[in-house]
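Lab notebook: predicted structure, single chain.

Context: the supervisor wants predicted structures on file for every construct in the current expression panel, including those that have not yet been purified. This is the next one on the list. No modifications to the sequence; it matches the entry in the shared construct table.
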Amino acid sequence: MYRINKFDDDAAKMAKERWNSIAKPLYGLGKFEKTIIDIAGISGTSEVDISKRAVLVMCADNGIVEEGVTQTGAEVTAVVTENFAKGKTSVCAMARTVGAEVFPVDVGVDADIDGVKNCKIAYGTRNFLKESAMSYAEAEKAVNIGIECVKELAKKRYKIIVTGEMGIGNTTTSAAVTAVILKRGVAEVTGRGAGLSSEGLHRKIEVIKAAIEKHKPNPNDAIDVLSKVGGFDIAALAGVFIGGAIYRIPIVIDGVISSAAALCAEKIAPGCKDFMIASHSSKESAEELILSALGKSAVIYADMCLGEGTGGVMLLPLLDAALSVYRDMETFEAVEIEEYEELV
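Prediction complete. Output recorded below exactly as produced.
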C-alpha cells in the first residue's frame, strides 16, 4: 500500500567505521553510537545532520473519556492545543532550548483552535464502549494526514522529527490498541495515565476489555484496530512513522502513545520500524513490551510520563553531544595511537 525505503546498510557501515576509527575505546558512547549509526542508515549518508529538527504534535479528543477513564475532563485537550499555538506548553519550552520547532496539528479536537494546522477529521472520536471510535475510512484518512505532514517537513529539509501528542484519554486508546496488536491481557498493558486512582485504573481496564470484546478488532489489520478502539492522534502518528520511511527522515518515538502508533505503523507498512528511533522508556506498563516488539531499545530511562514529545526532545541534545565526538574527534591514525581491536 505504501512504498517505503530500505535502510541503507552501506551508510550505516560507514558510520560504524567512523566511530571505530575515533581515538577512544570501542563503543564507548554505547547506545548513542548505535543511534547515530541508525540515523546514517535512515538518511542514507554517514554525514549525519540533525540540525533542522521538528516536533510534530497530533492533537485530538477521545469519546471514551465519557466513561470516566481519566482524571481530567476532555476540555483540557483544547486548552493545551491552544497553548501549543502560543508556545506555552512543556514541549514548546524544551524545544526552544534545543533549537527545535513545534508543529501542532488538529486532527480531531472537540473545538476550533486558531494557530494550529487544521486537519480536523471530526470533533473527537466516538465513545468506543458504545460504538467504533471512527470509521475505517476515517482511520485511513488520519494515517494519510500524518504521511502528508512528514512530506511537508521533508520539503522544508527537516532532518529529524520527534513525535508528540495531545488528547485526554489517549492512554486508554493506546492501551486498547496495544492489547489487541500484541495479543496481551488488558491489565498487562494499561497504566494509570495522568494519575488515576486504583479504582480509576480498574474502571479503565474493564472499559477496554468490554470494548475489545464488543468490537473484536482484527490484530492483523491495524487500520481496523484503530477504527474500533483507537484515536485520531494515534492514527495520524502512525502515518508520521510511515512517512519517515517514505521520505528517509528519522522519526523519534516519544512515550507510550507514540509507541502504540509506531506499532500500528509497522503493521500497516512492514519495515518502517527501521526508520524509528526510540528515545525513552515511559512509566506506562506497555512501553517496554512495545519497544521489544519493534526491536527497539530506549536510550533514556528517567521515569518520564509527560507526553507532548518531551521525552523525544530530551534525546536531541544528547545526540548533539555524541555527534560532536563523531564529527570532531581525531582518529587513532591521526594521533598515532594503535587502534583498539574488537576482542572476543
